[in-house]
Amino acid sequence: MLMDHVVESQNAGLIESILIPFDIYNDSAQHALVVLKQCFLYDEIEAEADLCFDQLVLKLSETIFTYYKSWAAR
User: Fold this and answer.
1) Which residues contact 39 (CB under 8 A, 6 or more apart)?
2) Residue 58: helix, strand or coil by DSSP?
3) Is the N or the C terminus of the chain less surrounded, counting Cβ atoms within 10 Å?
4) For 3-56, how does the pLDDT look when each residue is reduced to its tens digit (9 = 90+)?
5) Does the pTM of the predicted model rise above 0.90?
6) 71 pLDDT band (50/70/90 cuts)?
7) Distance (Å, rounded) from C-alpha 6 to C-alpha 13?
8) What InterPro entries does this protein map onto (predicted)?
9) Are 41 and 24 in contact (CB under 8 A)?
């Protein structure tokens, strides 16, 4: 939902906010491995981060495709 809002609003100031959840996932994964010593928890965090990244790529590719599709139709 955050990615949808940022991409659709076209506000350049919000672009940085897309990367904040990935930083949180990184900190969580590091904490799971180093402090908690839980590899399965790390695997779950990694899978969730991969899913979020895939959604980001999908949304960006849809937006870019739509832009160039409308540009080519002119």
Assistant:
1) 33
2) helix
3) C
4) 888 888 888 888 888 999 999 999 999 999 999 999 999 999 999 999 999 999
5) no
6) very high
7) 9
8) Cytoplasmic_FMR1-int
9) no
- How far is Cα 65 from Cα 29, in angstroms, rounded to an integer? 33
> Residue written as tokens 């076209």?
10
In this structure, which amino acid lies at residue 22? F
Residue 46 in tokens: 């990694």
Of the pLDDT bands very low, low, confident and very high (cuts 50, 70, 90), residue 1 is confident
In the chain, where the domains are located: 23-74
The three-class DSSP label of residue 8 is helix
Angle at 19 between CA 61 and CA 49, to 5 degrees: 80
| Helices 20-34, 39-72: inter-axial angle, 10-degree rounding | 160
32: which 2 tokens? Answer: 């799971």
